[in-house]
Amino acid sequence: MEDLENDKVCNNDESEDDGMDMPGEDVKEMEKMNFDFEAFPPSEEDIEGLENLLAQIFLRAEINRKELADSIIKIS
């Protein structure tokens, strides 16, 4: 009995969303934004952050992150 009541509530909620507009649909012209970025090669002081980044990228891989981070800094 409760499942049927929940279904009715869900169906009513879905029908209300059908008439809603997406935000920004009435925008006729998009604003352009320009950005300037500066980049610097990794240095010895970036080693900890680089190791953390590698840990996130290679979650389950058995690699030596410290050695890989050192290699990246050396070739930069």
Automatic annotation (TrEMBL):
<feature type="region of interest" description="Disordered">
    <location>
        <begin position="1"/>
        <end position="25"/>
    </location>
</feature>
<dbReference type="InterPro" id="IPR025602">
    <property type="entry name" value="BCP1_family"/>
</dbReference>
<protein>
    <submittedName>
        <fullName>Uncharacterized protein</fullName>
    </submittedName>
</protein>
<feature type="compositionally biased region" description="Basic and acidic residues">
    <location>
        <begin position="1"/>
        <end position="11"/>
    </location>
</feature>
<comment type="similarity">
    <text>Belongs to the BCP1 family.</text>
</comment>
<dbReference type="Pfam" id="PF13862">
    <property type="entry name" value="BCCIP"/>
</dbReference>
<dbReference type="GO" id="GO:0005634">
    <property type="term" value="C:nucleus"/>
</dbReference>
<feature type="compositionally biased region" description="Acidic residues">
    <location>
        <begin position="13"/>
        <end position="24"/>
    </location>
</feature>
